What does this fold into?
Amino acid sequence: MTEAPRRLRVLAAMSGGVDSAVAAARAAEAGHDVTGVHLALSENPTSFRTGARGCCTIEDSHDARRAADVIGIPFYVWDLAERFREDVVDDFIAEYEAGRTPNPCLRCNEKIKFAALLDKALALGFDAVCTGHYATVVRNDDGSRELHRASDMAKDQSYVLGVLDDRQLAHAMFPLGDTRTTKPEIREEAARRGLFVAKKPDSHDICFIADGDTQGFLAKRLGTAEGDIVDESGNRLGTHDGAYGFTIGQRKGLRIGHPAADGKPRYVLDISPVDNTVTVGPAESLDVTALTAIRPRWCGNPPQAGPAAYTAQLRAHGGETGVTAELIDGSALHVTFTDPVRGVAPGQAIVLYDGTRVVGSATIATTERRARAAV
Amino acid sequence: MVYLDHAATTPMLPEAVQAMTAQLTVTGNASSLHAAGRRARRAVEEARESLAASLGARPSEVVFTAGGTEADNLAVKGLYWSRRDADPARTRVLASPVEHHAVLDAVEWLAGHEGARVEWLPVDTYGRVHPDALREAIARDPGDVALATVMWANNEIGTVQPVHELARVAAEFGIPLHADAVQAFGQLEVDFAASQLAAMTVSGHKIGGPYGSGALLLGREYAPVPVLHGGGQERHVRSGTLDTPAIVAFAAAGRHAAAHREEFARDIGALRDQLVKAVHAAAPDAVLGGDPDPAGRLPANAHFSFPGCEGDSLLLLLDAQGIACSTGSACTAGVAQPSHVLLATGMDRDLARGTLRFSLGHTSTEQDVAALAAAIGPVVERARSAGLS
It folds into this structure.
């Protein structure tokens, strides 16, 4: 499994945050020929961060440049704003409009960092793209790659990398995932290396929604469209300003005047953009027993035919759950949960694991509930 | 390192370093009345006389600033304000669209905040302003023009403007013309008196002087409204304690530039011609920017567009081989944009993205050109395969 260390030409994606700065520093320290690049992803970058969020301001770009200077590597800013808008932001809006719940970070890794950026890097003669993700790439004797969870499960980000295929993994370098390092230790390491981003707060949420107000962001682009909030029997309980403003499993902000007959809280069960209706109901009705997912992508070979047992992760910071998964016609994945799970929404990614190894991922298309027909 | 970016900044000349370091160890504010102050004042005034002589100006026409950007701002904003104060009808600013951002953005700021009406003078495919175009623009209503500004030579594509003819046209109508001569000084014959310009910007670090030194050459009949208010130094036009070490070093570099200009222009022009030939040999489809006639461009400037390449990619690949040059375009938020200069000359947007500027200077050698000649072919090929993102 080990190979002789080879000096690689590495392009380090540097957001201006502490993780990617330490990752670039480690790659350089390991003897690689590292060049830093900051991706300008916003078409109208603001000068300064608002709060702790974002990686698209001029200040973040400056922070990344300073870190590169301290590490002693060349640094460039590449403008991928147009690609980012087309592949990530427009997709994000369209998915919400269709009543689904997308994960733009996965999309960005699949289409921007390990596609647009990687392709350009390879064309320019680089061997690998390095990021500050917490995940581990293992090289097998036959040259194939495996993606594994980070040593520190609490920081593991393999979920958002689950969309990467074998070729993308072959050119990916995650210096933070290979060692058992906690976040405070990364900050200490950054400080020790003289990287002043050591104390910079973590970025949260969605980088292109600087104020964190996803609903406001969507409302500005999709407008408002009043529709009904109904219960499972179709009784009208209230109105909303646009079905896209809801996420399955959401409890707050429903603005239903009167309580349910049984007095229990109600949750969003379904979002139907076609008739602009949001269906709510009790928590039990959220229990999903199985799902079908499309656009499967495999980290390595596709699994054997027939059902097989895996663990699955359904959210970036979600836990693991036992599943049986089977590939149908090579293009769809049918997943049955060992125990029902809640808050599963079409549009989200399901990532399958075999132990710590990422098997692959797919986008949830439909879910099956215990008490109800498939939606 | 192969340094081909002298238009960005050029190494300081030994005589400038010597003049500067000698002054750094001496105390004295040139505005003070005591002996220490008088000593500093003498050094400053000798430098002023020296720089004036290097530029064909009178000593009283030299206003020291902290660089070219400040001098450009003082000329554009200060003359606009003073001319408008004298006659409120004067709100029209005539400017070439190929100006350095220090002029361009100052002009746009006046439009955005001070009610200026900006008229961009038409340029040809080399970025050159025709004197008739200036005449036509002024003649439409000479009474409402605050000032005109056209750079002496372009920093990106090296095109030399017909400054004397333009100044004659402006003078005919009594309109002050400012020229940014930052790139021209040291490469072209720059004589302020002969030029008939009202104001002219020069910078220290482009001619082997120190960073943060510059001057506005200013006709004695002009009293621009100051940008910096304070102690009233420099004809009450530019307040601030005089930077004696920088000023004497700037003057030293200016003496060198004036004394060696002809041989420098001849030798560096020959080296530049070699460079152009070498680039064309390695990349036959490279498009030379600016005027192909050596008489119409800065002798130290070579500018190319490489079809299908991203300027940033070319720069990165050359940098990785120890060759320093520039894409020549301005950065917005650190992101390369097609140069406003090239767009003004009518260049296609995609072609304008794949540009490199090579600029030579007093330390340039044939080995530098040979290193570029060896590297540029494969670099262009590789950048082209990466394409335009």
About this structure: Chain A has a mean pLDDT of 87. The CA atoms of residues 43 and 251 of chain A lie 34 Å apart. Chain A touches chain B at residues 35, 38, 40, 45, 58, 61, 65, 74, 76-81, 83, 116, 120, 123-125 (CB under 8 Å). Residues 104-123 of chain A form the longest helix (20 residues).
